[in-house]
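User: Some background: our group keeps a shared notebook of sequences we're curious about, and every so often someone picks one and asks for a predicted structure to add to the entry. Today it's my turn. The entry only has the sequence so far, pasted here. Could you supply the structure so I can complete it?
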Amino acid sequence: MIKKISAIMIAMLVLASLSGCGKEEEDPYSSPSFSDGKVENGTEGDATETDASLTDALMIASYTDATLGDASSTDAVPASLTDALPMGIYEGNTYYNGLAEFKIKVDGDTWRFYDAVEVASATGATEDYVNNLWYGYKSPYDEDTTYAAIVSEKESGSTIIVSYINPSKYNMPDYSAKEYLTMASEKYEDVKVRTVTFLGAKYECLDVPAEQTNVGRRTQFARKVDGMIVLITFTMNEDTAIEDAVSLLSPLYY
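Assistant: Of course. Here's the predicted structure to add to the notebook entry:
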């Protein structure tokens, strides 16, 4: 029997530094607590329809027929990715995630990546800790929650956060992506997890309307890969459309 573990709240997502300039300071978001060791099993029967904008956004990201042979020379995957660490690699204005096989490409102006100093500040870590993860001196498999990338929209402060949740560090190695998001959904009203096609793969999706959060609409996609829950969180403030944010992502081999 899996023993109960002590109360641990995973410090996650959208701290005050992720807000747009001049915005009122908001409470940080906390992910579900694993403290009681209980698992709520989400099922396909729990799925509800998403709104039209999310449906459009998913269509943008669902290149189910993409293959390595489809990749153009201009979007070629860097050779170094074959030996890349689980946290992924940056090359210019593109982030490549080899674990879940997707990439994020920004213009560096309207949308930009946080550097290690900014990620450390936003997540309550140190610059050395973030760099050690990004350069492979530390492994995300030895940590509970780690951050591979944070993208911010200049005007609104909307963000895209790529983080990893390691269930093994909570003595629940079999914990699934659906169970994780189902537990997260319990703090909201009439919001359910559904299975969707995203970035050419099956992800679990939790879409929370802006009126139920303090930081704008939050849409999370989760997929378990090699024992790690890969979590992609979109937090859209003001007039930022989720389609615009999703369009920055694509399958790795597309």
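Suggested note for the entry: The radius of gyration is 17 Å. The chain has a mean pLDDT of 80.
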